[in-house]
Structures
1.
Amino acid sequence: MGKKTTIYDIAKRLNTTASTVSRALNNSPKISKKTKDLVLETANKMNYQQNKLALALKSGKSNNVGVIVPRIDSNFFASIIKGIEENLYAHGYRVIICQTQNNQNIEVEIINTLLKAQVDGILMSISSINLDTKNSFNRILQKQIPLIFFDRKANIKDVSSVTINDFEAGYMATKHLINQGCKKIAHLSGNILLDIFNNRFLGYKKALEEEGIEFNKAYVLKIRSTVKDGQNAAKQLLKLRNPPNGIFSSSDYAALGAIQEIKANGIKIPGDIKVVGFANEPFTKFMELSISTIDQSPVEMGKIAANVFLQQSNNSENTKIEKNVVLAPKLIIRKSSLKHPNE
Amino acid sequence: MGKKTTIYDIAKRLNTTASTVSRALNNSPKISKKTKDLVLETANKMNYQQNKLALALKSGKSNNVGVIVPRIDSNFFASIIKGIEENLYAHGYRVIICQTQNNQNIEVEIINTLLKAQVDGILMSISSINLDTKNSFNRILQKQIPLIFFDRKANIKDVSSVTINDFEAGYMATKHLINQGCKKIAHLSGNILLDIFNNRFLGYKKALEEEGIEFNKAYVLKIRSTVKDGQNAAKQLLKLRNPPNGIFSSSDYAALGAIQEIKANGIKIPGDIKVVGFANEPFTKFMELSISTIDQSPVEMGKIAANVFLQQSNNSENTKIEKNVVLAPKLIIRKSSLKHPNE
DNA sequence: ATTTATCTTGCAAACATTTTTAAAACCTAT
DNA sequence: ATAGGTTTTAAAAATGTTTGCAAGATAAAT
């Protein structure tokens, strides 16, 4: 009873061959209605389930898609995955999740593993960009497997991507702070080697420039996306002879840490210092002092990334057509950055 | 150049056969060092990558494990998946993610799909329990595929599970409220057909009983895990002739909604009403009025569920040995439930 | 030099499908 | 009744591996 029933089993019972059964199950026009019904009935009776593995081997399509993210337990990435999964499931694809933990060795290894598993496509948010990873990307492309970047992209020819306009986001956030009366604006930045962080930084700079505010190198600190790093950054900023009165953080978590630290020093938010974060993590909305932030529409981003994949894998011609979708960021204004929070 | 190289290609180039190449690559002792080196070298040169699909078909092991959750974009489930993924990846398994969206039809369909995909195991948190799903579970068991429940389990013979002690959690939370001076304690409950919610409810009742507090049916409301439902529930509770002064919510989101609603009515938390939530979602910690809650150690839960799977799939004997791991919940006391929040 | 033992390799089957090609079976019209 | 055509089924090849069995080659021992 533990054995799986195959089309051979069905064939044997009906005194026919596997090919007939296969065609009958696939509703081929070459099979008479009578045998079709018979096959279908016995298949049901025998509890037959198609073995997708065999089909995959035969057809060369596994119907599996690999999704690679730095980590899954952040609302941002979880939401993207939600979008991808929902869209691809409806098209018969299964989604294989892998986390790099921001480790480039793991990243390269994961790509290899997915290739061996014969995935039909790879959707990923890169953790690092260097010679090894670039090599991996090329191996994917050589095998003609669709590769799509989301959020954190590398600039590689023929590779599509779905991102938000991070430059615009940085610009909007900074401009908003200026509009609320800030003249001395700090920026908590991520690793500038990644496009997303670099672009946010450039947007920040542009906004300052436009308003004739001089760029102050001491106001820009590199942080990881943690509460702790935000606290440390705030400490450092408050120690300055001329501390900022506005902070644009590339991370909601760091923004939170900064806010906690600043408050602990008896300094008022948004009164004395105004803060804008990034990513619209759920907690930013729920806090008493709700945090202004940038929304990146992660679920939509995931859905679009999935769509781009579907397009590319349908049109084998299109595999080489690069398509770069850039979503508009949304500035979400909450209390942490308002000049007059009670109005 | 787009063609994949197979062991046949390597064999042809070396004027030998596929079997030799296979053995060489697998470091079989039956192959001389000389040819091994030769094969390995040319395999590298030709950019060979093993086709896991073929191997899977041959061996009957796909090295894929299906993970089914109601949704992925909640910190709780994302964290569990993180634990599962990290543990299983290290053992050569890939994790296929599926969401049921709490829909039982989808749930049944997903199980079917995973079975066809020949997964080596299914780890799931059930969405619903009824005849159809039970049928699906039986089909999994019939195929001798390890099935492990986490958090939301069904009581099925021979099926292992990893849960927390929800009874204890409900008891702890309620007892804590009582200790903080509450005598009139409401409970926001989920669907009581699911064990987790029923057990939390029973724990709640037990604590009341132990303290000689009479059970009041009007204090128990059924909610979904949303802010909105929490708000509505609070509205309803406040309308009572004798409103509660403590709330134990089965959901952090609902607890948040209740808190918002209560505050909006000018009622003090924790002064007038004390609140405890459930799940330790990140925001509960970050809020100005931090929310007391129950931590379920989701990452650990995922890791343990993965371990149970690994044990069962190694010992084919053990497949039928039910193992029910019950983790201890942790009551995390924060401001929302404290008699004297400033001490 | 021949047998025996040991080491190394090749052949073919197996995994569960689909698909191409070929062959029956059936029917219709002459 | 038979040629021609159409419909239906059967046989075989193909997908990329692993593996049991047999055989070939080499080395050792008589």
Note: The first strand of chain A starts at residue 64 and ends at 69.
2.
Amino acid sequence: MSTSYQHQKAGDLNFLKHLNRSAILEMVRRVPGLTRADIATQAQLTKATVGSGVQSLLQQGWLKEGDLQKSSGGRPGRALHLNDDRHYLLGAEVGVHRLRLVACAPSGRVLASHHEPYTPSTPEATAALLGGALQQLISSPEVSNRENLGLGVALPGPVATGEAILRRAPNLGWRDVHFLELLHPHLPELKGVWLMDNEAKSAAFGELYLRTGKTPESLLYVSAGTGIGSGMAEGSHSPLLTRGVQGLAGEIGHTILQPGGLYCHCGNRGCAETLVSGWSIRASLGIDEKNDLIQALAPRLQEPDVTRTLRRAGEALGMLLLNLHHTQNPAEIVLGGSLTQLGSTFLEPALTYFETHQQRLLGTTQRVPLRVVEDSTFVAARGAAAQVLARAIHGPSSQTAHQSPIP
Amino acid sequence: MSTSYQHQKAGDLNFLKHLNRSAILEMVRRVPGLTRADIATQAQLTKATVGSGVQSLLQQGWLKEGDLQKSSGGRPGRALHLNDDRHYLLGAEVGVHRLRLVACAPSGRVLASHHEPYTPSTPEATAALLGGALQQLISSPEVSNRENLGLGVALPGPVATGEAILRRAPNLGWRDVHFLELLHPHLPELKGVWLMDNEAKSAAFGELYLRTGKTPESLLYVSAGTGIGSGMAEGSHSPLLTRGVQGLAGEIGHTILQPGGLYCHCGNRGCAETLVSGWSIRASLGIDEKNDLIQALAPRLQEPDVTRTLRRAGEALGMLLLNLHHTQNPAEIVLGGSLTQLGSTFLEPALTYFETHQQRLLGTTQRVPLRVVEDSTFVAARGAAAQVLARAIHGPSSQTAHQSPIP
DNA sequence: CCACTAAGTAAATAGCTCGAACATAGTATT
DNA sequence: AATACTATGTTCGAGCTATTTACTTAGTGG
């Protein structure tokens, strides 16, 4: 369904203005302290155009002026910065075991956050719960005097491009859920951009978009938790996410790593998730759903069967990372999710496998940097907030995320 | 290297004009017979803007007017068509065993083609050979009275984004080759767009871009030949190709399918290419490099060891397709390359595996269509020509492919 | 104190799209 | 056959945006 007509973007004259305004805003956001002259040379615009663009962004409260830079022989330019005090963004993640909420400044700085245990229930009940928690977050003093730009929700399952529907979340037991529509009644006065996306994709977006300075041209986020998923964000201006028609892109948990291996809940055999995932580790070590996996394993990390299981899972993750490197070839890989807290018993085999097998194809050229997020609690929620920001800056024309058709 | 500055596209006023012109041209190319009114409604432009845009495209010889359409109650609109007689595009592929050349009309129709056996030699000698063959093709009567728009070359190895360098072609024995620079002296008078890209990516681009009517939102091309590679093209206007930083995206031949399996020439074990590729089939059946694989196997298709080898290879391909489905989730998959000529002994296991395992994740919703190209001889070369066309239409601003900085 | 250089601003100019009125080509109606 | 009707395509002036050019401003170095 959705758009059978192909959206051919042809430009209104106003569109050009917005394009230039948002380009200026992006540049300052990415490189704080740029001057008007810097922008003019980099964006190939004239000083006059940049001047008027900056002026309107200053008036709207998106930018603010800073100090004079030191002169390079002539009049020194005035530094421009993102105005980080005027707006805020809401991001939320419905995880399999926790609800996580953040309110962010445009820079990505977390103003207020909250997380609480969660046991999967119906979409309706979850919406009510999340709605209440968000209401509380909104009323906190850190954000109450700011203007809200919208809300992004990250969910543990595929969300197809152009639709605000969670197709399937096996670990929640959900199917074809219009989550934003369920959530809206609980936050009736919240205006702005409303969007939802897959958890790993939101995280990937945020990790790339909220970085300042030199940014990699693409970034792959691998989320290793109860299930295992990934998201790839590409491009500097407003990164594009690869979603796939059904939103299945990045469902690496169900790629086959071991032909003829164990049966997966998806029905196939030897899926990556049967080797590396929260549920497969629980299954092979006999840890109940009710107990927290990390806490349950923490005192047992020296036991031989635990070590062996974690090492095997780690190696499988390393293989998975290598395969991703050869199919997506991101400029940077970020590894997050609750399993990263298992520590080196699990991570070391993964990293070692990846490092040693990675560069055999191209020789000893540059390596793909791999970063492990130490605390990934709010990464996805913050990423969803970042998607809201990108939407707010670039307007609904950008195909960055999926807005809900809220009436 | 290349661009350390992030190319922030901010719009010149002229840019807007070109944007609208090329959007109009794309729409007519995709849906032949559109009227000005159709364009106006679909592109959200006014009749006046479309009118002037069409007029200038008519004058430049890109479009031509057709018949009046039947009236729907009022004045009938005049059909517009791509002018297929004025321009032509050159595409070439350096394969491991053949050189393939085409000259295409803007519609993708092949005007003239040529292929000849090739034995890998130095880049310089290959450039000379290809240059000569192209010269001959250009002088053929079908194209000699048309205007050339440029040349695209498809190569069997990774080409990184933004660089016109073939990083590595294991099956040719090449490394870090600036092929366009080598080719240029042999075609000094050939102006227009010069670009090069990976063979599977060119093919993917062409298969998506040259289609008319309703087009899938993304397309994955899997090229199974001496090696095995893939390319993913996305988007309707001018499709984007996923390349990855080092151009390794789609190097699925070196994803690990069988941990601890056979050693691959890349140094790792159990790569997909050890299970399904021209060279692995040759190795396991003892067929010499000098003989054509397809011809050598044709009379032996009933032999048990051949059947078993091909069935195993087919199943591995099916697994690979499934993994691609779960990492890239394209709207359509096209399977090409010389191995498709091995027929059902090889293809059936692949298709069956893919069909039966595909839809376990989302239930019985829509299936991803998989098409096998019967004759894929010129698919990559034609795809490279398509990349040239896209470049010519959208201008160098589009990040569609990699132009060489020819002086 | 004065040239010099580069950043930012102001006013005039050029160019594109838009809106509204108008001409055009068929069809349905009388 | 003449006329009303409807939707397509065109023309022309208005509005808006980016550019050009000239000018002001803020530091540096002699």
Note: Chain A has three domains: 2-82, 87-205+379-403, 209-372.
